[in-house]
From TrEMBL, chain A:
One of its GO terms (molecular function) is transmembrane transporter activity. Belongs to the binding-protein-dependent transport system permease family. LivHM subfamily. The chain crosses the membrane at residues 6-31, 66-86, 147-166, 195-217, 271-291. InterPro entries: ABC_transp_permease, BCAA_transport_permease. This is Branched-chain amino acid ABC transporter permease. Signal peptide: none annotated. Its main location: membrane. Keywords: Amino-acid transport, Cell membrane, Membrane, Plasmid, Transmembrane, Transmembrane helix, Transport. CDD domains: TM_PBP1_LivH_like (cd06582). It comes from the Bacteria.
Automatic annotation (TrEMBL), chain B:
This is ABC transporter substrate-binding protein. InterPro entries: BCAA_transport (IPR051010), Leu-bd (IPR028081), Peripla_BP_I (IPR028082). It comes from Deinococcus psychrotolerans. Belongs to the leucine-binding protein family. Keywords: Plasmid, Signal. PANTHER family: LEUCINE-SPECIFIC-BINDING PROTEIN, PERIPLASMIC BINDING PROTEIN OF ABC TRANSPORTER FOR NATURAL AMINO ACIDS. It comes from the Bacteria.
Amino acid sequence: MNTQLLLIQVFNGLVNGAFYALLSLGLAVIFGMLRIVNFMHGALYMLGAFTAFALGQAFGLGFWPALILAPLIVGALGMLLERTLLSRLYGLEPSYNLLLTFGLTLLTQDLVKQVMLSQFAVSSAPYTTPDILTGVVNLGSVVFPKYRLFVIALTLVICLVTWFVIEKTRVGAIIRASTENPSVTRSFGIDVSKWVTGVFGVGVGLAGLAGVLAAPIYSVEPYMGAELIITTFAVVVIGGLGSILGSVVTGFAVGVLAAVGAAIYPPIANTLVFVLMAIVLLVRPSGLFGLPEGTR
Amino acid sequence: MKKAKLTAIIAPTLVTAALLSVTAALAQGAKLSDNAIKIGVLTDLSGVYSELSGPGSVKAAQMAADDFMATNAAYKGKVQVIGVDHQNKADVASNKAAEMIDRQNVDVLMDLPTSSAALAASEVAKGKKIPVMVVTGGTTALTNEKCSKYTFHYAYDNFMLANGTGTAVTKRGGNSWYIIYPNYAFGQDLDRQMTAAIKENGGKLVTPSDATPFPNTDFSSYLLKAQSLKPKIFGTMQAGNDLVNVVKQYNEFGLKKQGIGLGIGLLFETDVAALGQDAYAGALATVPWYWNLDQRSRDWTAKFEKAFGKKPTWAQAGVYSATMTYLQAVSRAKSDNGDAVVKALEGYRFSDFFARSAYIRPQDHRVTLDVYTVQVKAKAQAKEAGDIFTKVATIPSAKAFAPVAETKCKF
């Protein structure tokens, strides 16, 4: 294994890591604020990709408008779900929302499959890279797709903005307060349930965004989120449930580790993350960046 | 008193039922278990292979059943088709096969995408003496070490794919390869066959093949490896959605522009449709059939399209052909008894819209037929929707499959 190739694998790992980070960031925001384990996250990621494809088919919209519109549409759908279904389960055991979101996942996947098959006669849709980002960058002896570098950059920006908003702004303070102690926050005249809906929408929107970003790389098909979500949950657990910094750092780290691992010994690629999870849980049961329950 | 009354009702019913079935059997001159031929299409109704076989295979089997009943008056209303999902899992396939045979009295199992599922179902059917027509499963183990007296391998197999494509690509100058394959029975077998075919034609592998997880979405590390190794051909043994991902990323990483060609082990029409044919343009593959092969194929395709709303894949056309071949064997054997049908199938020579110059080898139950090496056309060259293949070569039935002398099959 030459160093050049290894270096490229690091880039490659950062791309996969970008998807893990975006998805686990959404999961972390939702779990951290609302204590919802959103199993539907993978399906919403898929909906992001599918919406981008559908917008192109129906209105001829390209990648750039879809990059803005699809997350908004998915986010709005998320808010609707939170208002109509999830909000009824607050105060009940977490297993209820797990079951609900899992059921919704199956429903969404099959629905999309039916739409694809009836409207487009295939269940996996073509989606092309925007012109400006097609082609490759020459990095010495190997070349790397421009589009993948763009994914890494954009993800980093999004993660930074999210972190900044939650930790450093007044909006973030309100969000944190309303989840930390809803009744006190309410007494300040703040409509907590509206904020909760908003936060859920943003978290879900991030999944939608990841989906749009994935469309030019992976095949757009109903089950594209199913596999990814399992790794993403492992990332969230390693990083510490609900920790924003943890999910982003771990997302990228796991991506890189898996890619480098795969370059050295290919069969390990898919198991490495779970091995890592087991080790972390043994040493730090609350995850790398997580605080033990009760100390928050 | 009550008991006697019950007997009085039951006994005549039983006698009538028995008489009815006897007269029915006499009328049609064939002995059918529970007075019907039940065809179990065991397939992937929901997963990665559901488009290329799945519901379309069930529809194709139903069409064959309908056509058979329409032309054979004695069997009117007697052929039933049941479609069951095996989820591409060997254990599910095994359970479902047993359940269909025991509880639904299925007389034959059909289709079986995913080699591991095909092998599992074949094992179950062997124990119960029920014929199996594997159409969409590809492993050559079905006609070698894992062969069974009741299993017939229709349409294609990994030897035929590798022999056709490996030979054609290597002879056209693609003599150095790097191959990736999905790590399960089908992929492992296809990689072995492909490697052998390449070497036999004077080609070489630049590095040993890499196994990838199955299913898998990200193939970038293998593509990067291909970039640095610079083989003439990047060989992919993936199928279905996995293949779509490989080809998408093959284009994304610009391998084509760097002069690294694409060699595809197993290609279905649906894989091309999922990505647009330009992504595949120039790639060679081997298929047992395609819809616009000739007028006979087009005529059948028109019927299928009317019934199913889409053009058939070669797997679905194969299921029709296999179902019809099975039903005709039942008709010749005048029975749907497993052993009788197997006897009627063995050594049979026929030709239909799908299987040309077909022969069912008695030694290993390989169904040989003419197959075609094809090249994917660029979109600009397509004359109509779905016109994706240009025929490069026809490989005659006798040469397309592993010679009978090489089979490891012992019934």
